[in-house]
């Protein structure tokens, strides 16, 4: 009888995959390195965005003012006392007027200028450079220049009008003052609309335009049924950006009319500034700012949805 010796089985452990280990180490180093790039941005956003917004929300629910040593919590009292008032609703109507009138003028003129620039007529580069100048100027400086030119008895425009017997005082009439604010704002930002639409036109395919020309379509038919539908994403983004800027319109009004005559040109931003820094009602001013931000939330969501990659 043959006896066989029992040899214990040797358990084999798999050797570690050094390649996977190195890849994991590289991935960890990449994540740590990426934090170094992202962290400054997050710090900046928290510093200039989250913290001021949180402080504004806190002020909007307290009776914070220049004379209040220890502000008390008042809840929604500031909103009731400042937002749901005829003054705020009137300023909201003035702001809506500036937004609608400004967008109509800026889109119409900006589109026509974009068409001319897109056709690349002789001297279009010089014309494009000149047309972009208003967009590069400071709004307060622009407002002061126009305020001086339209000043009765001193401005070059009113002096020239006096030669023809037209005695202009545009800042005395509510509607003419509103028109001046809209025209100044449009004069500054028509180049932005022109630039956006002109850039969109350069990306349009030529085949539909050539087919329309062969079929004998007029300029208006080509514009309405071909160019504008294809430019719809660019137009939407452009108008949304200008809508947000127009709601925050302050510097031009501050430099020209100060919200006058009376409250004819007092936008929401101007009313918030007056309440906060002239009457020192910080709680009321913060409540107005939060209310405007809430009203603009749908516009922000539409903008984010349309610009999402």
Walk me through this protein's architecture.
The chain is built from 15 helices and no strands. It has 309 residues and is mainly α. Helix 1 crosses helix 14 and helix 8 packs antiparallel against helix 11. The N and C termini lie far apart (81 Å).
Tell me the strand percentage band: under 5%
Which structural category do the helix and sheet elements fall into?
mainly alpha
Q: Kindly report how far apart the N and C termini lie.
A: 81 Å
**Main beta sheet, described?**
none
Helices, by number, come to 15
Q: Helical amount among residues, as a percent range?
A: over 70%
What is the succession of H and E elements? HHHHHHHHHHHHHHH
What are the segments in which pLDDT stays under 50 over at least 5 consecutive residues?
Answer: none
The mean pLDDT is 87
Q: Can you count the beta strands?
A: 0
Radius of gyration: 30 Å
Global outline: flat
In summary, what is this structure?
This protein is an all-alpha fold and 309 residues long. Helix content is 71%, strand content 0%. The protein is flat and about 70 Å long.
Topology, element by element:
Elements: H1 18-60, H2 77-82, H3 86-118, H4 124-131, H5 133-136, H6 139-149, H7 156-162, H8 174-202, H9 206-214, H10 219-230, H11 232-247, H12 251-256, H13 268-277, H14 282-295, H15 297-306
What key attributes describe this structure?
309 residues, mainly alpha, flat
């Amino acid at each position: 009888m043959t006896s066989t010796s029992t040899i214990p089985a040797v358990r084999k452990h798999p050797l570690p995959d050094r390649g996977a280990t190195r890849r994991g180490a590289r991935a960890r180093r990449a994540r740590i390195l990426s934090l170094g790039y992202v962290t400054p941005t997050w710090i900046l956003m928290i510093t200039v965005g989250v913290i001021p917004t949180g402080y504004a929300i806190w002020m909007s629910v307290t009776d914070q003012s220049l004379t209040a040593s220890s502000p008390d919590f008042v809840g929604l009292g500031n909103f009731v006392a400042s937002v749901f008032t005829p003054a705020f609703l009137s300023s909201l109507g003035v702001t809506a007027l500036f937004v609608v009138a400004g967008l109509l003028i800026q889109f119409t003129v900006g589109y026509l200028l974009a068409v001319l620039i897109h056709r690349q007529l002789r001297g279009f580069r010089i014309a494009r450079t000149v047309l972009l100048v208003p967009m590069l100027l400071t709004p307060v400086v622009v407002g002061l220049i126009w305020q001086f030119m339209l000043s009765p008895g001193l401005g070059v425009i009113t002096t020239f009008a006096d030669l023809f017997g037209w005695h202009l005082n545009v800042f005395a009439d509510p509607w003419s003052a509103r028109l001046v604010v809209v025209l100044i704002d449009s004069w500054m930002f028509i180049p932005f609309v022109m630039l956006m639409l002109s850039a969109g036109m350069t990306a349009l395919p030529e085949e539909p335009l050539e087919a329309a020309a062969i079929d004998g379509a007029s300029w208006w038919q080509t514009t309405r049924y071909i160019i504008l539908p294809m430019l719809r994403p660019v137009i939407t983004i452009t108008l949304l950006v200008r809508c947000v800027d127009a709601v925050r319109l302050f510097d031009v009004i501050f430099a020209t009319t100060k919200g006058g005559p009376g409250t004819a040109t007092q936008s929401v931003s101007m009313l918030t500034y007056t309440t906060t820094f002239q009457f020192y009602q910080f709680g009321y001013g913060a409540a107005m700012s939060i209310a405007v931000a809430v009203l603009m939330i749908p516009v922000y969501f539409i903008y984010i949805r349309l610009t999402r990659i």
